[in-house]
Amino acid sequence: MKKKIPRNKTFCLMWTKHDWCAIFPARSGVDPQLNYPGKVTPATFNSITDLLCEKYCSHPNHFRMGGKPFFSIYQLDALVESFGGERETAAAFGRMRRTAGHPPQWHWVEHW
Questions:
Q1: pLDDT tens, 6-46?
Q2: N or C: which end of the chain has fewer CB within 10 A?
Q3: Distance, CA of 47 to CA of 59 (rounded, Å)
């Protein structure tokens, strides 16, 4: 964030690295065109989450639940698929927590 966050505003982060498809205008019987794949490697995920933890999870305005930074995930299944499985994904989030130097984070998973 390039602008200073006012003291009375809170924010949180959401992982939304899913496939970007051309779905508008929707056409019956036509598969949407893939514009950009959302798959990431564990190394890329680590690089991105290191930056997020350093810059934002420790920010005083970052939303917290029970004193823990809140991190939301959109389409967890896409992230699990890009890592190769649930165990690998859990390991990546464990690394994120340890690297951040924060207590374990709350995660909210959304899918539609």
A1: 888 998 888 887 788 887 887 888 888 888 888 888 899 89
A2: C
A3: 18
CA–CA gap between residue 42 and residue 88 (Å, rounded): 8
- Cα 72 to Cα 99: distance, rounded to the nearest angstrom: 18
Looking at the DSSP assignment, which residues form a beta bridge with residue 110?
A: 74
Q: Judge whether 12 and 62 are in contact, CB under 8 Å.
A: yes
Nearby residues of 79 by Cβ (< 8 Å), 6 or more positions away: 15, 17, 40, 45, 73, 89
pTM over 0.85: no
CB 104 within 8 A of CB 90: no
**Torsion sign, CA atoms 40, 43, 49, 54:** negative
* Residue 80, H or E segment: helix 76-83
The tokens describing 76, both together, are 């967890």
